[in-house]
Amino acid sequence: MTRAADPYGILRRVMQPRERPRPGEACDMCGELVPEPHSHVASVSERRILCTCRACYLLFTAEGAGARRLRAVPERVRLAQDFSFSAAQWDDLAIPVDLVFLFQQSDLEDVDAPRRVVACYPSPAGATESELDLDAWTEISAANPTLADMEPDVEAALVRRGGNDEFTCLLVPIDTCYELVGLVRQHWTGFHGGDEVWRRIDEFFDRLLARAATGR
Questions:
Q1: What is the 3-state secondary structure (H, E, C) of 90-120?
Q2: Gap between the Cα atoms of 154 and 14, Å rounded
């Protein structure tokens, strides 16, 4: 029977359930469907990441757009060459795992106020936060001039301690840090995390180092 001769064909197509987009596949601003991967805008006032289509993302790339409360999250990943960080400085952070990300948070009410420096580490409970002493940040940034190029609120220094107290630092988009937090939450088991989570963390850093090497 041809489609034209099938009186129930149209009815069947109308009654067929339509596939709904999964969470995260729609732009949080305009509702347009977005691909994976897609761009993000940071709601600085709410400390929240918004999934956005490319058009909405580009609206907030200009300096001063979004009244400083909404900022496009950069997409670059850079390796901090010759990163200088000591075991004593790490101990001062009192981080119980070998991962931390540091970023500067703006004061939205007072544009002239100094930025807070926030240190977070991924944990089974999410991102555990502590405010870094300003003198400690001054010391770290003075020893590592590349950190001065990090955009406040939307970029972070992601630091990993390896064996023999060797430190790797990548300058990454802030959404990358929260992606790492989600990975740790999902796969952490027991007291030390388990082999699976550290294997996935190794893969995560390998991907970031590859992006940094290609300048993407």
A1: HHHHCCCCCEEEEEEECCCCCCCCCCEEEEE
A2: 45
Q: What is the pLDDT of residues 142-196, one digit of tens each?
A: 899 989 889 999 999 999 998 888 899 999 999 999 999 999 999 999 888 899 9
Q: Is 73 exposed, middle or buried (0-12, 13-18, 19+ CB in 10 A)?
A: buried
- Whether the CB-CB separation of 53 and 27 falls below 8 Å is answered with yes
Give the pTM: 0.81
> Domain extents for the chain?
9-73, 78-214
